[in-house]
Amino acid sequence: METNYTIRAADGKEYGPVTLGELTSWVREGRVNQDTEIRRSDMEYWAKASGFTELQALFVAVPPPLASAGAPVTGVSSDDPQAAARLRSGASWFYWVAGLSLINSVVALTGSNWRLIFGLGVTQLIAELGTNFGGAAVAVTFVLNLIATGVFVLFGVFAHKRHLWAFIAGGVLFLLDLVFLLLVQDWISVAFHAWVLFSFFMGAKACHELNSR
């Protein structure tokens, strides 16, 4: 198993674990100095960076630090990779819902009866109303559906940037869409909506975990 290192910065926060290669980069960038406390994965105690033989040569030729001596490590991600993956998975569903809803809108406007079950039920309803009224109503309903799908794209963008409100607002709107599908008794779409809502919930939970670090 590869040896890794954990850094304790001047502010008391810990960063890592990281590989020797990443730690070497931090030293060269001036983020880690000779007095920075480090714990190697095979050690039970903290020691100054200058005490590690694998780093001593770096301190001899290290360039002037980019940050003040003893300053905390910056620009280092201490994210839980599993939580980050759950966040990305949940946030990506906003894009899928938007894209599939737009496809359903186009299909409905052509008068076809088939559709994709992951899309928004309300956009399909709007498209069908436009088809029934005909004329300018078709264009109006298409614009309305573009706005609805665009909102979900924005939710996806902000959710990927770890804005918890995007998960909450998008989840609430999708829940309302699920209620509409319950009223029309579209049970297959209800089941898939429930799955997507669960994905939103897991993404929101991961977002909260990552933002709390």
Short description:
The chain is of the alpha+beta class. It has helices at 20-28, 53-61, 81-109, 121-133, 136-160, 164-183, 187-211; strands at residues 5-8, 14-18, 37-40, 47-48. A four-stranded antiparallel beta sheet has the order 2-1-3-4.
Description of the structure:
The chain is of the alpha+beta class. The protein contains 7 helices and 4 strands. The protein has helices spanning 20-28, 53-61, 81-109, 121-133, 136-160, 164-183, 187-211, and strands at residues 5-8, 14-18, 37-40, 47-48. A 4-stranded antiparallel beta sheet has the order 2-1-3-4. Helix 3 packs antiparallel against helix 5 (136-160) and helix 6 (164-183) packs antiparallel against helix 7. The two termini are 27 Å apart. The model is unreliable at 66-78 (pLDDT under 50).
Keywords:
four-stranded antiparallel beta sheet; 213 residues; 61% helix
Structural shape: elongated
Low-confidence blocks of residues: 66-78
The fraction of residues assigned to DSSP E strands is 5-15%
State the helicity in percent bands: 55-70%
Question: What kind of oligomer do you see?
Answer: single chain
Query: What pattern of helices and strands is seen along the backbone?
Result: EEHEEHHHHHH
Strands ordered across the widest β-sheet: 2-1-3-4
Count of DSSP strands: 4
Provide the gyration radius in Å: 26 Å
- Please outline the major beta sheet: 4 strands, antiparallel
Q: N-to-C terminal Cα separation, in Å? A: 27 Å
Mean pLDDT: 76
Number of helices: 7
Label the structural class. Answer: alpha+beta
